[in-house]
């Protein structure tokens, strides 16, 4: 545990830690009691065993509920893009998390982007993502988060068709 004072090594009940990690609320402030002291902490990093996926080490940051902190927040898309549904495109989530800064007590679990109106060759940048009140974007605004493009099969079919159309036609000889 680090932040606001000396770093403190702690041990955590494995079941409680697993519940916190798997609850989907990693950005939630948790009250921790260490000895006689009560601290508000935020889960910052989980190092897991590569085979069993069980946590080996975690980092908690001491925070006050109203202080501004930076956090990486997962991007979630909703809807089916018009370019996928009607135009045969494919959606690609390029940036899976955005770095934002705001009050520790209000960090969202995720940022939702409605991609319903995205057509082929269109994208959403980090600057276009709606942030909760009191938050600012740290990720560069021009960073592409989600895009819709044509599939590789359609691109290669178009190249093949263009090559056939461009090929000279031999006239029959008599």
Explain what the structure shows:
It is a single chain. The protein has 174 residues and is of the alpha+beta class. The radius of gyration is 24 Å and the shape is elongated. The strands form three sheets. A four-stranded mixed sheet has the order 7-4-6-9, with no helix packed on it. It has a three-stranded antiparallel sheet with strand order 1-2-3. The chain has three helices and ten strands, in the order H-E-E-E-E-H-E-E-E-E-E-E-H. It folds into two domains: 14-63, no CATH class; 69-164, Beta Complex (RNA Polymerase Alpha Subunit, Chain A, domain 2).
Task: Return residue spans where pLDDT drops below 50 for at least 5 consecutive residues.
Answer: none
Second CATH tier, the architecture of the largest domain: Beta Complex
CATH topology of the largest domain: RNA Polymerase Alpha Subunit, Chain A, domain 2
Q: Count of helical segments? A: 3
Anisotropy-based shape: elongated
Instruction: Give the biggest sheet.
Output: 4 strands, mixed
| Helix content bin | 10-25%
Distance between the termini: 89 Å
According to DSSP, the number of beta strands is: 10
């Amino acid at each position: 545990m680090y932040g606001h004072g000396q770093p403190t090594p702690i041990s955590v009940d494995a079941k409680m830690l697993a519940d916190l990690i798997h609850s989907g609320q990693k950005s939630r402030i948790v009250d921790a009691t260490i000895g006689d002291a009560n601290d508000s902490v935020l889960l910052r990093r989980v190092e897991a065993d590569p085979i069993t996926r069980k946590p080996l080490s975690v980092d908690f940051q001491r925070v006050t509920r109203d202080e501004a902190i930076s956090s990486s927040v997962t991007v979630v898309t909703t809807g089916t893009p018009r370019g996928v549904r009607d135009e045969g495109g494919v959606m690609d989530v390029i940036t899976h998390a955005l770095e934002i800064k705001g009050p520790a007590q209000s960090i969202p679990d995720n940022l939702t982007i409605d991609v319903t109106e995205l057509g082929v060759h269109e994208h959403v940048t980090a600057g276009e993502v709606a942030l909760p009140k009191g938050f600012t974007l740290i990720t560069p605004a021009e960073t592409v988060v989600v895009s819709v493009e044509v599939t590789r099969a359609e691109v290669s079919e178009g190249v093949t068709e263009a090559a056939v159309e461009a090929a000279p036609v031999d006239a029959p000889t008599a």
